[in-house]
# Entry
Amino acid sequence: MKFSVGYPVNDSDGFIESVEKHREHIEEVYFAWPGVASCRMSSSDQTGYVSWDVQERLESDLLRFRQAGVKLDLLFNGNCYGDEAVSRKFERLIRSIVDYLRDRVGGVDVVTTTSPFVAFVIKNYYESIEVRASVNMRIGTVEGLTYMEDVFDSFYIQREYNRDFERIELLLQWAQDHGKKLLLLANSGCLNFCSNQTFHDNLVSHEAELAGMDNVSEYNPIMCRRYFTNPANHVSILARGNWIRPEDIHYYEKYFSTVKLASRMHSRPQMVISSYVNRTFHGNLLDLLEPGYGHAFRPYILDNRKFPEDWFERFVNCRTGEARDAFCQQLLSEVLVDTTASHMITD
# Structure
């Protein structure tokens, strides 16, 4: 098993060195092109201020990854491309970026997208590039895979099924039978079946436009951050999460050759990489996730060292929602630590 890691949006210092240090464990680096909508904010345009050196630095870093033998995965995974979504103009933009990267850094190996149109364009013009369905497409059924079989070579499975091994085996069998590849996102902090996800993803796609609006400051559009301000909901991070601890990633080795680590918006991407490479993390589990909820749980943390060795198997074997909720409530009492009453743990 190797990892696909995200090029940081805000600061790449130390990230390149971390990838090079763990080169034998890194399969890909995924990145968005400056100024193009993705599922995360633009690295070059925030509140109207453009950092003009971003593209130059990105190209230099991509070339360094290429020289290290790391594959490059270009993202077109915005949830909305507006009125240009299926336009000739957008097609030309896609092709111009791919062609530019071919000339500047030796090309890209993978394009990951939420857009079947983008997938169609890449399939139509670039036979050598692997076309991958983003995790944000939420494909978690054989039917969903079948519908997109003609334009995608590989698929991220819907994160809600990360711990459903019967579902994983079913999807994997279909993929093997049809010459496709399945991948997994390991450290998402998103809650299962989030009813706010489409709304939130659309906001991110239009972040540049929203930054210029007089927005209602009293409303927090990120539902999970509001949700976790209520301590009664803290158990949901266990009962309704889909994250996989570094210590438990070995359960997936027979299913997935490549696992994605969310690190583009993470404040400490090097920590994420080293934790999964080394299969261990000594710290607040909330700090490993993206998005993380450390601020919402304060002064409490989830001490990753306190998880029982058999917790994962026990969780997976819970056959009813009631049994799972009861187990997670008990687990929360074991791993939730009040830092005002104990020493803060560090990784």
User: Anything to note?
Assistant: The radius of gyration is 20 Å. The chain has a mean pLDDT of 91.
